[in-house]
Design brief:
Layout: E1 20-24, E2 29-33, H1 48-57, E3 61-64, E4 82-86, H2 93-103, E5 107-110, E6 122-126, H3 133-142, E7 145-149, H4 153-168
């Protein structure tokens, strides 16, 4: 679970929550997850390279978030650990697969949920023995992950709505 530019350990309501923060870099959003994410960053102050270095210093992975929504992060040469297929825009799957292949990055899934009905539209299958933040970090770095896309009727209907909203806002 992540929020933009802050992390509070008390928001972890169960052992099923992996700590994280979504850093608003100068080029787009970077998901940072792992056992000890930074507690605070300031929007637009860190370059992608600085944000990735910060993530790695905190024993976390650095994941390119929603790479085609108001972002140039995918164009950076930073040492990312993975790239995300986003629940609001799973139609970008083929483009993300090309980037992942070109950069030799694993792909993870994220719902980017802002409302309860959005939770779980995309998730990540992990090849791990024990569910811990450290095991999740290791699985992502080793490429032992796979995005899981749930493409039901609701998701297909919402896809058009989200695309239109983001296009009108200039985010696509």
């Amino acid at each position: 679970m992540t929020n933009h530019d802050f992390f509070r350990r008390e928001t972890l309501v169960s052992d099923a929550c992996i700590p994280g923060i979504e850093i608003s870099t100068t080029e787009g959003h970077l998901l940072v997850i792992g056992p000890n994410p930074p507690e605070r960053t300031y929007s637009g102050t860190l370059s992608p390279e600085e944000a990735v270095e910060l993530a790695h210093r905190h024993d976390c992975v650095a994941i390119v978030a929603h790479p085609f929504r108001n972002s140039r992060l995918r164009e950076s040469d930073a040492d990312f650990d993975a790239i995300e297929i986003n629940g609001k825009h799973p139609e970008h799957r083929k483009r993300i697969q090309r980037i992942a292949s070109d950069r030799d990055l694993p792909i993870v899934g994220g719902s980017d949920a802002h409302f309860p009905f959005e939770v779980g539209r995309l998730s990540t299958r992990l090849d791990i023995d024990q569910f811990t933040p450290e095991a999740v970090v290791d699985a992502i770095r080793d490429g032992r992950v796979e995005p899981v896309v749930r493409d039901g009727r609701l998701t297909r209907a919402l896809r058009l709505v989200y695309s239109n909203i983001h296009r009108l806002r200039g985010h696509l």
